[in-house]
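--- STAGE predict ---
source: upstream dedup step, 1 unique chain passed
mode: sequence only
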Amino acid sequence: MHVSFNMFSASPRLAWVTDPHFNFVHQAERDSLIMELDASGADAIALTGDISEAEDLCWQLQRFHQETAKPICFVLGNHDFYHGSIGNTRRAVRELCGQESSELYFLTGAEPLRLSDEWTLCGEDGWADARIGNYFRSPVRMHDFRLIEDFQGLNDLEIFNSLRLEGIRSAIRLRRQLEIARTQSSKSLVLTHVPPFREACWHEGKHSGDDWAPFFTCRAVGWMLLKFCERFPNHQVLVLCGHTHGSGKSRMADNLFVWTGAARYGHPELNCIVDVSSFRANDHDWSFTEQHRSSFDA
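--- STAGE serialize ---
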């Protein structure tokens, strides 16, 4: 898929929403979000996953687009595959986005979108890949393994291997996008669902411990981002993610910033407006985190 943002302003303003879980939202709360988005003056909407569940995901995307009357750029989260499979859900969404005159842009596996001379938009679902924390000793087991067809009937080792593979695939797809993006602009805005670092895995103001981190971080994407930013120190990367429902900002390298968005079940909200014409990472209060290098270099 190759599209441009020529239908927007020269430097579009993106309204960022994460984890709306529309299948749990009453109409009054939905109307409140639509009014907030309308008042924001945004040119387009950026969704970072957990939009609904597989059974009504496409319908929810179409409905949200009709309500907002704005182009929507999005990636999917783990809940979006509930009661379906990863492959079939993505195929159905791509078919929906491929319809003539569609203003729904599924970024995973697609061409990056050039937003302006400075910024290019990339996107990847990401997947919690069980490689940070202690998967085998953790008492946590996600509903994913019962509700997503790809994991049903698998034992713990088989699930672990499947999660790792999904994380690697995500990292490969996103790296391809970033390699294109760096030839188009000096900055990349990345939408993903799963935080790529433990330091970006925020919940109630703290980072997740070893029990929860395997299911709320994607080490493969994090490692790829660090290596990419080391190779291209003049290319700035801003990552917007969700999944944890907790908010926080982390600076993982001089040119790598991760913003995790807040969310509440039943109360979808606008996290922020990203104005690519004026956004500068240094204008925001980013905490610099000296990440555990050994966990990425191993």
